[in-house]
Amino acid sequence: NSLGAISLCLCLCFASHIEKHNSSVGVENILSTWSFKSVGLGTKITRLKITDYHVHCTVMSRYALTTVESTVWNQFHLTKEAAFEVDLPASAFISNFTITSGGKVYVAQVKERAAARKFYDAAKKHGKIAGLVATKSRETEKFRVVVSMPPAIHMSFSISYEELLTRRLGRYELALGLRPGQPVQNLSVDITIAEQSGISFMKVLPLRTSRLLSMPPSTQVQQNPYCAHIHYSPTLEQQRNLSPKGLNADFVIQYDVELKDLMGDIQVLDGYFVHYFAPRALPVVSKDVIFVIDISGSMIGNKIKQTKAAMSTILDELREGDYFNLITFSDKVHTWKKGRTVQATKQNIQEAKEFVRKISAEGWTNINAALLSAAHLVNPSSSSSASHSLSPRRVPMIIFLTDGEATIGVTAQDAILHNAQSALGSVSLFGLAFGDDADFPLLKRLALENRGIARMVFEDADAALQLKGFYDEVASPLLSDIQLSYLEDQAYDVTRVLFPNYFQGSELVVTGKIKSGVQEMQVSLTANDSKQKLKVESKARLAKSKGNETATFLDCKGSLGGIYSFVQRLWAYFTIKELLLAKINSTDSLAQQLLAEKATNLSLKYNFVTPVTSLVVVKPDTDKYPTSISSIPTSPVTTTTESVMTNTVSPGKHLPPSSLKSTTTLLPSTNKTISAKISSKASTTMSTMLMDGDPHFFVKLPNLQQNLCFTVDGRANDVLRLLEDPEKGIIVEGHLILAPTKRGVEEHTRTFFDKITIKIAKGGISVTLMIDSVVVKGEGLHSLPTTQQGSVTYLDLKIVLDGHQSCWIDFGKGMLFLVVFHRYSHPSYYQMEHLGFYIADGEGLSSLTQGLLGMLHFLIFLVCFTVHGAGFHHAQTSKNTSLAMGLLMKGNQHIPVTLQDKNLKITPSKRLLAQCWVVPKVEVERLLGHSYESYLVDHL
């Protein structure tokens, strides 16, 4: 068995610059602790043969899903080490990693960072081989894993990552790294781009870092107004012509979209929306710009030469309506024109270029003094600034370049941040960190707090082009102080809507959730342009559709699999990034903790590797440890045990810990006891009635050894009343989410429950259950991760999590509910994590109980067999699936049913092939006695 010789534990901590100085475990510590020396990277790796290397990328409305697959063959007679390395865009989130060997697939788990570390340490303690990657190279992250391969076997690696393409300088750019390290017989790149608003232009660039001057040979392009498919499959000879070592380049595509409406493009899918705002043909607003340049001793050499070259070019591109000034600083600050900005006339530009030519590098670094001097020049609110030269219609900005840390004057970060924010007011600060020694975290926070952005400039031969490229992005402001507003009764959980500036060639993106039933969305825009304050209102008709319908409508011939729910994932992508930025920008430790927890839970829910999660995959040594990887829990794990958090899907108000008269425990021994008691109590009445699946309903008919099954065709984002007992004061509601359709039955809409809320009038308690957390709210709030054992007791109510897949809600007195968490270790494209609701014991419910499931509890049914099809509608029976026909008697109504074999989930952990009387969909409303709409509620 080839698997027996594979021993692997991979832990990928996707650590970005923003976490470097803000986490208890820094990037440097992780790299030194988990260096690749532990997997033998200090020795030479014999090159194994790569037989296949394929890159698949789907771009749906700027959101890109990329999968890189590589198959390696150990052609030797000894065990060798195989390396898999991929360049990832810095803004991307990994969403899947698998290793396939011997016909078995090993899927990496996304875990909370601390939990992953414990998991990794435990595997390492048992002698597993381990490796970690968190290295940075230019605008990419390096993903690299090394595993041991037995002789004569094939092993496949696959990694998927997701990103939103950013519009810069009037185009989107998709760059896919092709660096297999050797010529590959079967190498291909397949890209499908689908843009609902239309593609205005698209071009394939020469391979980046190659000497090609045109599109790579063996590239095929098919395009229509809305879609493009690009296929690249170079021969071995073509690969060797580029390099004997094969491809070592980026395959780059640039394109832009049609966007004629000033208010942009709004797209809606599965209850989520995304608003792309990128108006064209607006006049450029003049700017007041201060260039602040670090000339300390560390800039000596190429850095100062490249900076001077870039500044000379930038000064030539200032518009005549612009005003500017120059500041250089080391331990002292020098201002070119004292106390004012000057117009960008030819003479002033020539004098400024002469000033730049003469600067030289020496001395220390006084960042604080340089910032205050720049603010003195450009902030109109400063009493000592030259406000007479400033126009309210010019955009004030500072471009600040440094290559180091503050070494003289005010050096404390908090003091520098406070001073800058007080002095700059409404001025936008853009920070450029030149080289690895620059204090990028400080520049990032300065930019975040002062209406700007920060960017790294790398110490390469093209550093001057990098500087010039960044200036080009901010050189042409079109709007300032932009606010995009959406009506509260139409949209919620909306991401950032306030933007300080909109620059020519860029794009502003807002995403959020749409309330059920909204057909038309009202959007308001307020902003300042070159002459006036704009206020525009627009109504957008929402064309709701499923992703596969959109693809068909756009006539996309390439595969769009796996990205149909892109708007929802885009919302999660944006929300996580904003939570992490807010964490950086916060100085309150409790707020930082809450923000990190929200980001962690969203990352786990959507399987994203982010700065707060890690990627772990383990294959135990089967000779020593017979337990296979399939027995290891594959559900995401968080270690939030004492924290307080609200609904992770709906960031909003945070409630403090309470003095609630309840007990919360996460002690496994205690929970096993409680869970065992409840399970025992439920064993005799388990699954008398349940809702689980699409949603599928299952009822054990009273006094009969018969089962009744039916399905309700739900709608995405609807909230259904499942049970309501006014006498007991209990309400159960479920929120539906759209799932991908199965192949061959695309016309059938599939929905699942992703949230269930149980409300108890006594004590004002609500229990909100989601795939990753259970939140109990009374006078205060308790939150339990669903992947750990835990319990909450409040008065007579007991809520017990078994730590794997179910939660028991025990009211006592003959009322016991169960919620099952359905997770998939290796989901197919149509599988979706969801919840199932079971009435394990309903003896204590009153006769007044209503709701989709509750109303069936006290009804009396009889089933009579029939030998003919009288009463059956067309297509209600199937010769292949129906074992018998019958009539379900409900009062004086006779409802046709068919007896079928069904794979029933009668317990949370066991499926059983059993017979069930199936109610046709056309008869479900008659069975329930009410329409589908009558079970809808306004909110959850």
Short account of what is shown:
The chain has 940 residues and is of the alpha+beta class.
Account of the protein in words:
- The chain is an alpha+beta fold and 940 residues long.
- The chain folds into four domains: 2-259 and 575-627, no CATH class; 265-282 and 479-561, Immunoglobulin-like (Sandwich), CATH 2.60.40; 287-475, von Willebrand factor, type A domain (Rossmann fold, 3-Layer(aba) Sandwich); 662-937, no CATH class.
- The chain contains 14 helices and 54 strands.
- The strands form nine sheets. Strands 35-45-46-47-48-49-36-37-38-53-52-51-50 form a 13-stranded mixed sheet.
- The two termini are 51 Å apart.
- Residues 1-45, 129-139, 382-390, 620-677, 679-687 and 870-877 have low confidence and may be disordered.
Structurally, how many domains make up the residues? 4
Shape: globular
Q: Strand percentage, roughly?
A: 35-45%
Which residues sit in consecutive blocks of at least 5 with pLDDT less than 50?
Answer: 1-45, 129-139, 382-390, 620-677, 679-687, 870-877
- Strand line-up in the sheet with most strands: 35-45-46-47-48-49-36-37-38-53-52-51-50
Kindly, what is the distance between the CA atoms of the first and last residues, rounded to a whole number of angstroms? 51 Å
Cα-atom radius of gyration: 31 Å
Number of separate strands: 54
Q: Considering DSSP H and I runs of 4 or more, what fraction of the residues is helical? A: 10-25%
Overall pLDDT metric: 78
The profile of the biggest β sheet is: 13 strands, mixed
The number of helices is 14
**What class would the helix/strand composition place it in?**
alpha+beta
